[in-house]
Amino acid sequence: MSRYTVGIDFGTLSARAIVADAATGRALGSAAMDYPHGVITDALPDGKPLGPDWALAHPGDYWACLGTVIPEALRRAGVAPADVAGLGIDVTACTAMPVDGENVPLCLKREYASVPHAWMMLWKHHAAQAYAERMTDIARQRGEDFLARYGGRVSSEWLLPRLWQIAAEAPEVYDAADRFIDAADWLVQRLTGTDTRAEGIAGYKYFWNRREGYPPEAFLAALDPRLEHVARDKLRGTLRPIGSRAGGLTPEGAALTGLQPGTAVAVGNIDAHVSMPSVGRAMPGDYLMILGTSNCHMFVDDAERDIPGICGMVEGGILPGLYGYEAGQSGAGDSFAWFVERCCPPQVHEAARAEGVDVHRWLTGRAEKLRPGQSGLLALDWWNGNRSILVDAGLSGLLLGLNLSTRPEEIYRALIESTAFGARMIVENFERHGAAVRRMFACGGVARKNPFLMQVYADVLNRELRVAATDQSGALGSAIFAAAAAGLYDSVGAAAERMGGVDDRVYVPDPESVRIYDALYREYAALHDLFGRGGMEMMKRLRQLR
User: Fold this and answer.
1) 490-499: pLDDT as tens digits
2) What 3-state class would DSSP assign to 357?
3) What's the DSSP call for residue 43?
4) Mean pLDDT across the stretch 331-336?
5) In the chain, which end has fewer C-beta atoms inside a 10 angstrom radius, N or C?
6) Is the separation of the CB atoms in 294 and 384 below 8 Å?
């Protein structure tokens, strides 16, 4: 009997695969690969320059990863392909692209290689912000019901504003595209030979709903006549619920991955969402923070609520049988990396090398010796825009309180604290609108590697926090969904109960730190509302001047 599943997690910069024991969730072997082209932000591979706020990826990198990390993970695990029951895939979202009738990405065709709009747009592609704002205005004017499920605003990180951008700025690409498809669906379709699309991806990123389908054609036509029939013409495919079987591996897919033909492939998933079962069987009121390059916030409940400023609410979108709510912060680990790579003085890098540690660890070691509030610094965590609850990619980062004695570790701590304050803003927004948060968990590389950061979050949120027991929550989550899709368990919840789990350590709020952070948070909230809601357009004027 097949006892193992494979999960592969496609992040922003790399892909990671694990081979998991389906009885325990234990990772027997893993492998990772960086994308050869990385994140394409400045110029296309042929040198064609990109404008501000573009963020693209090369689909060939993702396909190459499948053929590298899965065979290597199998080899390291010592598991025979015949013993693998299922494969699960998750990808950052919205990471979508136009393809032709043979499912070939247009960017891989010579005639479109130099057209930026033909490439795969990453989640942090924000060049469609103007279209998102206009879409929000039109939806509000028309009283479109679907908008309430998405926090009342359209994000430039979702598909429809990007389709509008393509139709308006590169109509030749829009016309040539047979379909537009998210990377997770594209990989699953190529591996199985089916036309499967994930309900979860369509629900959160395409405005699709089980009861109503896509937004009304009259609304789409009001945006742009070319978009009127976009759902029918450009978003075709069979929508299936997450946790179900998309199909079996084709001979081509088997040859690429090293698995056997017919191996069950789960419906594709979103990287943040798929992490939810990695902490075990979820209950209504559970809240998971995926801490990494950006922070994603997942909340599941048994009731449907309209909550402003979130990224979406989809029935069965995160876990079957529950309503899944998503929110997030567009920049977290990205902001720490920005400071280390672009702003940290040379002597810090030299000191870290002398001590044999990386710069992040060096800064963390000194930052954790500071008391809350000691530096007099306060930051807004908008270095990559605001995903929730303002839903505005046009906002930017802010650091307040600098003076001539400010040290790098003080700035580093202020950046960490800012992401915790942003998380608290999101949690309080949920609870103000009737969503009671009962248990809080965290996962992701940052959560596992940085106890200091986790304690800051526990203190700022004033809540106990548990952390996933795995270093690979995304890949394990995909392996859990694969176990359900392969029929090894009768539900995702049952698979999560056996395969997921948390560490023994619990991060407990420190009362004195809570008291100080409550005062700092009030200042953060005032700054948040001043620049985010108070009519201060300075950040956007500076962006326009740039």
Assistant:
1) 999 999 999 9
2) coil
3) B
4) 92
5) N
6) yes
